[in-house]
Amino acid sequence: MGRSLSIIKRCSTLTSLSTRQVLQALVLSHLDCCSVVWSEESQGTGNATEHTITTLPIVIWKWEEIHFPYLVALWVLVSWLCKLVFQQNPCLTSVIPESGLLICIGWVLGGIIYGADKVQTFRLQPFTFFFYLLPQIVLDAGYSMPNKLFFGNLGAILVYAVIGTCWNAATLGLALWGCWLGGAMGDIDTGLLQLLLFGSLIAAVDPVAVIAVFEEVHVNEVLYILVFGESLLNDGVTVVLFNVFNAFVSLGGAQIDAVEIIKGIISFFVVAVGGSLVGVVFALLITLLTRCTKNIQIIEPGFIFVLGYLSYLTAEMLSLSAILSCTFCGVCCQKYINANMDERSVSTVRYTMKVFANGSETIIFVFLGISAIDPSIWVWNTAFILLTLLFIFVFRFIGVFLLTWILNQYRLVPLDFIDQVVMGYGGLRGAVAYGLVLLLDENTYKEKKLMVSTTFIVVYFTVMLQGITMKPLVTWLKVKRAAVAERTLAEKLQNRTFDHMLVAIEDISGQIGDNYMRDKWNNFEEKWLYWLLMTPFARKSCDPIFNIFHKLNIKDATSYVKEGERRGSLAFVRNESKADVDFNKNEYVSFFPSRRDSVPSVCLDMHEQDLKMRESEDFDAHHVLQQHLYKGRKQHRHRYSQKHLEVSKDEHEVQEIFQRTMRSRLESFKSAKMGVAPPKISKHLKKDQPQKVREDCTQCDNMYVVYLTLSGIVNPAFMAEMDTMDPMPPMQQIPSWLAEAEVDSSTVAPSQRAQLRLPWTPSNLRRLAPLRLSTHSNDSFLLADSPATQEGISEIIGHVNLPSKSMDSVYLTKPIP
Amino acid sequence: MGSTNSTLSKIPNVEELVQETGFTPAHIVRLYDRFEALDKEKTGHLRPQDFGAINRLAINPIGDRIIGAFFSPGQETVDFHSFVRILAHFRPADKKRPKDPSMPEPVNSRTSKLKFAFQLYDQDKDGKISRAELLQVLRSMLEMQVTEEQLESIADRTIQEADLDTDDAISFEEFRKSLEKVNIDHKMSIRFLR
């Protein structure tokens, strides 16, 4: 996009060095040590090497040679240590967002350096920022982006990003111009175009700041994705506006005619779309590469980073939007590379990205603080600064409300007032604006220092003040609303039921949310992309139900082993008597990711209310309901977090529901076959009248078999029995783990969980053994233990999973031979 | 997908459907495509297994109940008309419908939607949600960690709050009353695509 180009061009014109030499000098002077010091030192080095030595030096002081990398490393270390410092005090971090604290520490450090050197030797240079600190943050943002949510809301995000940013820029520029004309700012040398440029660079919401602040305020998913998506995608607009106005200012006001304006509009499309395309191309490259890296798994993660960075640089080189390119690279490749790569590589990539991103963010904020402690850059013009702050704030809110009002006409789930307020308030500016403002040419922009100062103030205001007050604001707003409408238990329950109902109806009617396009895309993806981009093994594991099945088996295997360890050894398997396996809840809670008591999505208020209601009896019921209702698909908390590598907590919820559903279906099929009423939780085993309609049976068999398979137990002998419809009451042959066992006094009363899902205990397996005719054990338990038989599972699933477009045919299969 | 007209001609009684449910012909065509996609064996009817084939329903706590709601009591299959009629409950309410007392209640009015929701609870169709039925629903919607006693106390409280005539069950009127503050139209509508 020409940021780098403009710096280099500017330098070469100023110093009449060739571009290449300028580039070299730039690269070498990253930390912007005072140029005087630099030249002195280089001379010193030269002199030193000319000294003749009179005796063999044992140790030499080599500071001049290594001081550059040393300083870089030292500064990185110092920045990260700052983070360590205030993490010691968690109360502090809960009030002031981390970014704010980092800036404060930056001030302190800057003060120290300034005090020591009388000049600010270390500043955040735009080049460093844009090429060494920003790319990893953007790449991490793209890679961890919740895709479904992102693309589902893409329309709204684009509206906010494009129209919203243009609105912000235009109104701010015009308003400032109006005030300048009115003389409110005193005598500053600027003009409409310059003010418009300033408006455009300060109008953009900053992704770094948004991540930093929203991390700690848990807002609901949709809101988060809207603000966050906007902050990423508005780079396209910002870049264009910046370049266009920069060019206009250089051309001079007189040269601007319709042609130029049209060119400006065209350049927007080229830059934005081009940048995204570059990102997509690189995503393709990454995916294809991971398809072939089976044998060099150790460097696999490296490819992701290098190619991601290259996508950023390539877009930059072509003067397209680099942030868009990097974002879309991450967004498009995440699904496929996660499937293609080995699990360890995936963890490595995820974790390393977070390390880099978090690290960069820390450095950025510390340096934002340090760079401010430099009297030479400050020019204070109260009116300008205050007016800018005011206008930014006001116009942001107006813009958000206007756009949301328009959008709500088309959205199925409208954004309510509180969300809009939070969105408006969350329009944080940050380091990107700072980097852009430093790129301005001093000669063209006489008031550059003023603009820099204003940018600093704006950034500090938004990051610190708005960051600090964001959480209290959210809490306050919600509490106010909730007090007005206190919901009854029935309402709460029913609301959740409605959510589930809607999801179910959407699934049945095939209208997924709102997106016919998504359906088409899914089909296209399954047909072509999976084949092209993913390894064969990865393709198979894409089915979500298979994944659940797989995870359930792993969990069972783990519990089996754990139980064995608890009892001393796995030898207890051989014990013929019914195992005294007490699967009480306590032992199993550890398997479920503990429900962190972070405030769930939108309901900060409910938390408060529950605390208030502690005295009344109502507390129990409301609280339990609140905590334990299954969340519908729409309500899952946002999973994107820069600091935490979260496994989504709703996975265990999904598994529970899946198990339960399978179980009840199994029971209802069983009863349909046998002609008994659907069993209640604890009895029966009636030997009963045969049967029902025979025609049903073949269907039922298939279904039954499939359900059995998916529940993890495949018993060919058993199935053979079913097929022949043995007159002997099949009940007896149903492994007793399936049917509810008679309550035996020797067994421990099963827990809640065990009642609903009798665990596949080793002892139960024992009972199963005589029924097996084949030696090949298909039981998931044992399979899970031995990796060699993983193929067994996939084979079975291979039977079950007829590859088909809609993937709905998992349950309808040919009978398993 | 075939042209709309040709698909439309395959569906019997389209005009009647349009009248009754308020879907446009384009909607109906899309729903017909979906119906055919679900009806793998091309029998013209759907059975519970066909619904069971939809993966995502398996991970929905009330998925099976919803499936059950499609089947009228005693029937084991669903034909296209019933399919569409049930789905019509979820059409967003028509804002400009004149209140005409002589016309039967349209299928996507607030009352009809509530009736549908009520039937999800009331499995034995006696017009009341008994304590046992409520317990069943609660059990399926709450995590396993919740104990029986907690469940029962929640069920008791819920009935207490909603039950106005103290018969220890929730009738449709009481159900409706307890939900008067909820925006049913929003909560029970999905946007149907053309």
UniProtKB/TrEMBL annotation, chain A:
It holds the Pfam family Na_H_Exchanger. It is a multi-pass membrane protein. The keyword Membrane applies. Keywords: Antiport, Cell membrane, Endosome, Ion transport, Membrane, Phosphoprotein, Signal, Sodium, Sodium transport, Transmembrane, Transmembrane helix, Transport. Residues 93-476 form the Cation/H+ exchanger transmembrane domain. It is found in: Apical cell membrane; Early endosome membrane; Recycling endosome membrane. GO terms for cellular component: brush border membrane; early endosome membrane; recycling endosome membrane. The keyword Transmembrane helix applies. InterPro entries: Cation/H_exchanger_CPA1 (IPR018422), Cation/H_exchanger_TM (IPR006153), Na/H_exchanger_3/5 (IPR018410), NaH_exchanger (IPR004709). PANTHER family: SODIUM/HYDROGEN EXCHANGER (PTHR10110), SODIUM_HYDROGEN EXCHANGER 3 (PTHR10110:SF90). This is Sodium/hydrogen exchanger.
From TrEMBL, chain B:
Pfam families: EF-hand_7 (PF13499). Its main location: membrane. Keywords: Calcium, Cell membrane, Cytoplasm, Lipoprotein, Membrane, Metal-binding, Myristate, Nucleus, Phosphoprotein, Protein transport, Repeat, Transport. SUPFAM superfamilies: EF-hand. SMART domains: EFh (SM00054). Residues 109-144, 150-185 form the EF-hand domain. GO terms for molecular function: calcium ion binding. GO terms for biological process: protein transport. One of its GO terms (cellular component) is nucleus. It is found in: Cell membrane; Cytoplasm; Nucleus. The keyword Protein transport applies. Signal peptide: none annotated. Belongs to the calcineurin regulatory subunit family. CHP subfamily. This is Calcineurin-like EF-hand protein 2.
